[in-house]
Amino acid sequence: MPVLADTRVSIAGLGAIGQVVARELDRGGIPGLKLGAVSARDKEKAQAFVRNLANAVPVVELEELGDYGDIVVECAPAALLAKIAEPALARHRKLIVLSVGALLSNPHLKQAALDGGGAILVPTGALLGLDAVLAAAEGRIHSVRMITRKPPKGLIGAPFLVDNGIDVTDLKEPLKVFSGTAREAATGFPANLNVAVALSLAGIGPDLTLLEIWADPTVTRNTHRIEVDSDSARLTMTIENIPSENPKTGVITARSVIALLRKMSAPLRVGT
Question: Out of 1.20.58.340, 3.40.50.720, 2.60.300.12, 3.40.462.20, which CATH number does the structure's domain 7-125+252-264 have?
Fold first, then answer.
């Protein structure tokens, strides 16, 4: 039986998520997969990062990632999603998307995946229970509500806060800074609430999934509480994520990408 070459994985973005995934691939930590290339806004820093890897890979432009990877992992700023996705999907690549909220403002990407023979994959990320929500959506879901509490520094700079003059830098008690739909949150908090959009895509959509966001100086972890009422189950789930070096992102997010990559080539796959 012939030995198959490792599947190549290219990574867009070398922040808190991209670096962790790249190192895991570089060390051979995911059987059947290897790092193919990386891309980042700061090319010099990316070159320095690559030099410290065991196996040298090229630093390429975003549009070239599909040339070097059978799978492209997007963990870049949300505004760059289309620039990464369109050429990758046109080359029949699998695209793992972390900037899930940007899928709502780029609905053409789903058709691009169909036309190009590619696929868009959304990892569980910093959430939990998406398998159960997907199963419930096979029947009827009556309501989905999510309450997010974050240390204030993890919300600083969010467009919604800037546009509405909401200052969270010196809070002494929890402050509710947003109440609305997942679609609205995707626009107002593009770097913070991809989890809400992932939840909405698994369930009843971004316009019916309701969300509260609290800037809470009493918590040290990014906390999400999900309440789902359906004709098959009532779900109440809470997750408290340890922030990474980037306070907007939890440590578990990068590990969720690694888990998805591992699952794609595993002989035994657990979960829906």
Answer: 3.40.50.720
Write out the two tokens for 157: 């700079």
Global pTM value: 0.92
Question: How wide is the angle at C-alpha 253 spanned by C-alphas 71 and 216, nearest 5°?
Answer: 150
Q: Output the six-digit token pair for 236.
A: 């109440």
Q: Which residues of the chain have pLDDT under 50?
A: 1-4
| Phi/psi of residue 173, nearest 5 degrees | -145, 165
List residues bridging with 237 in a β-sheet. Answer: 226
Measured from the Cβ of residue 90, the count of other Cβ atoms closer than 10 Å reads 15
- Residue type, position 156, single letter: I
Instruction: Return the CATH architecture of domain 130-248.
Output: 2-Layer Sandwich (3.30)
Helix, strand, coil distribution of the chain in percent, nearest 5? 35, 25, 40
Quote the distance between the C-alpha of residue 272 and its chain's center. 18
Q: Please return the burial class of 82, using the count of CB atoms within 10 Å of its CB with bins 0-12, 13-18 and 19+.
A: middle
Residues annotated as catalytic (active site), given as ranges: 224
Kind of pairing between the strands at 7-12 and 71-74: parallel
Nearest to 248 by CA among 117, 154, 146, 184: 154
Kind and range of the H or E run holding 253: helix 251-264
Task: Give Cα 70 distance to the centre of its chain.
Answer: 19
Sheet holding 209-215, edge to edge: 175-181, 209-215, 141-150, 222-230, 234-241
What pLDDT, in 10s, does the model give residues 183-220? 999 999 998 889 999 999 999 999 999 999 999 999 99
Strands 94-97 and 119-121: parallel
- CA atoms of 182 and 145, how far apart (whole Å): 10
